[in-house]
Amino acid sequence: MRAEEVIDTHGNTDFDAAAAMLATRRSYPGAVVAVGVLNRNVGDFYRLHAEELGAVVESSRLEQDLIRRLFVTETTNTSRLGELERGARDPWVDKVRP
Predict the structure, then answer these.
(1) Does the model's pTM come out above 0.90?
(2) Quick one: pLDDT at residue 98?
(3) Residue 18's domain spans which residues?
């Protein structure tokens, strides 16, 4: 999937990380929320409320070479980003910590 602005968080996403990503999307509505592994409870919650919460994309489906701005929530350690770690280390990608 093509996306220039992506919102990501640490793996095994818990409720506070999921909330931070969704809040960031409210400020940047054009950005895509990318998820890797969700905490079991967060996954269950999302499946129940997906329509209200909006679309998310699996991190592995993103074309990383097209990302120009990466919003990183709930972590300062890029190694915790999983699939998008490479994008977080790319000097051409603008990193934002909302």
Answers:
(1) yes
(2) 84
(3) 5-96
Phi, psi of 7 (to 5 degrees): -110, 130
User: Do 75 and 7 touch, CB atoms closer than 8 A?
Assistant: no
Q: Which of 6, 11, 7, 5 is nearest to 77 (CA)?
A: 11
Sheet arrangement for strand 32-35: 57-58, 32-35, 5-8, 69-72, 94-96
Q: Write out pLDDT tens, residues 82-96.
A: 999 999 999 999 999
Task: Enter the tokens of residue 36.
Answer: 């890797």
Domain count, the chain: 1
Q: What is the pLDDT of residues 20-61, one digit of tens each?
A: 999 999 999 999 999 989 999 999 999 999 999 998 999 999
**Dist CA 72 CA 52 (whole Å):** 23
CB 87 within 8 A of CB 6: yes
Contacts of 72 (CB under 8 A, 6+ apart): 8, 9, 78, 81, 88, 95, 96, 97
